[in-house]
Structure formats: C-alpha cells, structure tokens
Amino acid sequence: MPTAQAIVDCAVYVDGERLPGRFTHQAALARAREEDTGFVWVGLHDPDATQMADIAETFGLHQLATEHALQRHQRPKLERYDDSLLLVLRTVSYVPHEIDSVSEIVETGEIIVFTGPDFVVAVRHGEHSGLAEVRKALEEAPAQLALGPGAVLHAIADRVVDSYIDVAQSVENDIDEMEEEIFTPRSKVTVESIYQLKREVVELRRAVNPLAAPLEQLSHKPDLPVPKEVRRYLRDVAEHHAAVAERINDFDEALSALISAALARIGVQQNTDMRKISAWVAIAAVPTMIAGIYGMNFDHMPELHQVWGYPMVWALIIVICTGLFFTFRRNKWL
C-alpha cells in the first residue's frame, strides 16, 4: 500500500508557524531543510512494514528503531540513536460499563515517537490515541512550537499522561461505586466483577508505571538532544506521571480490600442461610420424631386407643414447633 495511506497528517513548521500547502513526507523534509528553523511533523496510523521502511529511508531512522514502530504491546521506553530519539508510550482509554460488568474496562494502544534535529515522526497503534488535538493546540501556540521537535515530544507525552489521569479518575469512581455497593444489602456486585476490575488495574499499571524511567531521562539528562526549556516542561510531566502512578498502585490495595470484604459478606450470608436451614430442620424434626414414635405399631402405647389421642399429638406438635419458631425468630435465626 502507498505510504500516503498511512499518513494522517504531514506538515512543515518554521519558527512555530505551519507552512501552507500539502506535502509528501519527502517534499516536507526537503522544504524543512531549506529553512534553518524548520522541521517536519509526520503522523502515521498503523503503518505496515513497507510503509514504515519508506519512512525510515526518508528520515534516516535506524533499522532497530523501525522494527519497534511495527511492534505492538511494548513497554514504554526511551532509546537514543546518534542524534535522534525513540520514545515508546502506552496509551489507555476507559470503556464505560455497568458496575457489575466483567467485560473489558481499559483499552490500550501505543504511540512511538521518533525525533531528530529537523523531524518528528509519530506512529500510532489503536483507535483512541489520536493526536489531532495535540497538533491543533501546538499550532495555536507558535512560541511553544518554535522550540522544535522537542516541543512536539513534550506535547505528546503530556497528552498521554493527561489521559492516564482521566482514566485513573474513572477507575477510581468505579472503585468508589463498587465499595458502596459491596456494603449495600442485596448488592448485585459479584466477586468476579471485582476480580475483573483488579485485572484491568493491573493492565493499567503495566501501561503507566514503566514510563517513569523515560520521563526521568528526558527531563534530567542534559546529554540528550532535548532543549533545556523543553526539559523544564518534561519535569512537570514527570511529576504528574508519578502522582498518577501512585494512585494506580493504591487502586490495587483498595481492590484487594474489597475482595476481602466481598468474601466476608459471602461468608456471613452463607452462615445466615445455614442458620435458617438449621432452624427449619429443628422445627421439622419435632413432628418427624413424634410420627416416628407412633409409627412403631406397638399395642401398648400411651393414648394410642384414646379418642383424644390424635388431636392431642397434633396440639403437642403445633405447640412445640410454634415455640421453636418464635425462639429462633427472637435469636434472629429466622
């Protein structure tokens, strides 16, 4: 397939301003190199190997870096190839659902960002990780965009971390709602739904936590090809990331406590059910015992041949069973 089909947007920026017109990625790079302060920003969505090879040849990307762009479900990481950087970010998206649902709650994707002295290549995997709003916001802030490819790198990382915060807030709302339901009588929340949310939190943690090391390197290592001003912004992103990572770790502990509470509630319910069953069995044992005694067919038994014997036995059964019923009811067994 032609490379153009994988390209979402391709633009040349000079002094923070987007040049008018449409460019192929080759023409855009050539035009940017004509300008001392120009760079190219190319966005791709799910390119295949042939399309990625064409991009790599145009921008001089390392073969290993190109292979990373085609892989899915990677850990966030930062790698340097001479004067270019490769940053892998995991994206997350919250899926609205019912509180007792056991379906997928968090979807993940990837953004792989290549930066060089005069280019940014952003490769996306997944349907929820669009960067159109990031590009629009930067184009409305030419002073920021004038900082070059590093500004784009920061904006993408900032957008991804902001999405972590939004998803973490939604998951926290789920946990709060689930906690309220757990302690509500006749709750519909099952242990399976808590386990599902816990599994999704584990998936969220695997996507979010490993980004700490790349952000630390970008914001504190002066030997990386990132402008000093951009490193200041990246330190702010790193702080936000640390906060959301800590929240996600707390979610795991909260869900473990909810599982314990749910299991305890199930145990209490089972004990209650067993007490009710035991109470009814005790009540049913009285007529069973008396009927068993009078069913032994002996001639010489008290009141066996008396006219009032049969109603007396029934009266005795009713009195004893009624007494047992109210005794168990008073003790809250029934």
UniProtKB/TrEMBL annotation:
The keyword Membrane applies. Its main location: membrane. Gene3D superfamilies: CorA soluble domain-like, Magnesium transport protein CorA, transmembrane region. SUPFAM superfamilies: CorA soluble domain-like (SSF143865), Magnesium transport protein CorA, transmembrane region (SSF144083). Pfam families: CorA. It is found in: Cell membrane. The keyword Ribonucleoprotein does not apply. Keywords: Cell membrane, Membrane, Transmembrane, Transmembrane helix, Transport. It is a multi-pass membrane protein. InterPro entries: CorA_cytoplasmic_dom, CorA_TM1_TM2, MgTranspt_CorA/ZnTranspt_ZntB. The chain crosses the membrane at residues 277-296, 308-328. PANTHER family: CORA FAMILY METAL ION TRANSPORTER (EUROFUNG). Belongs to the CorA metal ion transporter (MIT) (TC 1.A.35) family. This is Magnesium transport protein CorA.
